[in-house]
Specification:
The protein is mainly β and 106 residues long. It has no helices and ten strands. It has a six-stranded antiparallel sheet with strand order 1-2-3-10-5-8, with no helix packed on it. It starts with 8 loop residues before the first strand and ends in a 7-residue tail after the last strand.
Length: 106
């Protein structure tokens, strides 16, 4: 399956972060997020497992109360229902991979 730019689903979140669903199948979803310095993905939980990959920028990741500064090429993993969040320390882009896909993003 191929997904082209005309099929991407983009949403601007309350924080101003721009979320683009790049594609999904039943058990996986890929989502790009474009951040500006200071924007925050508030600590939250969901029943999906997640890997967050840093493409560009620097972020403070919070996974279950443990905080780590992450930069390009680094990532974080989150099990289902574990509290997590992200703060952009500079402008950048991240890629989130979810399993299963996020129905609430569609």
């Amino acid at each position: 399956m191929f997904i082209t730019e005309k099929e991407f689903q983009t949403t601007t979140l309350e924080s101003g972060t721009v979320r683009t669903v790049k594609g999904y199948i039943n058990d996986m979803m890929v989502v790009e997020l474009k951040w500006k310095k200071g924007q925050e993905g508030a600590v939250h939980t969901h029943p999906h497992r997640q890997c967050g990959y840093i493409i560009s920028g620097t972020y403070e990741a919070n996974v279950d109360g443990q905080k780590q500064i992450l930069g390009p090429g680094e990532c974080f993993y989150v099990e289902a229902n574990v509290p997590h969040g992200l703060i952009a320390l500079e402008d950048g882009v991240t890629l989130d991979i979810f399993t299963p896909y996020r129905e609430d993003f569609l």
